[in-house]
Design brief:
With 84 residues, the protein is of the alpha+beta class. It has 1 helix and 4 strands. Strand 3 and strand 4 form a beta hairpin.
């Protein structure tokens, strides 16, 4: 139980630090993602979802949450909201 809560604290701390660096030093440490494309590419018609759950990886809009901390609608993990 302690290990699980320590890992969550570590994940939240790293995420918070990366977002602070993004805000004050104009880095892009908190932005991540990857994709492979084979053949022709058609860009997806999607908006960016900067609030990615630290447990399940589901992306959410910043407008979906009113508070600075939110619970993921998919898995219930506590996360920190990002506004871009």
């Amino acid at each position: 139980m302690c290990l699980d809560s320590c890992l969550k604290f570590g994940d939240n701390s790293i995420t918070y630090f990366a977002r602070l660096c993004d805000k004050y030093f104009q880095t892009r440490l908190s932005v991540y993602g990857w994709a492979y494309y084979f053949g022709s590419y058609t860009p997806p018609n999607e908006r960016a979802r900067p609030n990615v759950c630290i447990r399940c990886g589901a992306g959410h809009d910043a407008e979906s949450f009113a508070t600075k901390r939110y619970r993921c609608p998919n898995c219930g993990a506590l996360n920190i909201r990002t506004t871009v």
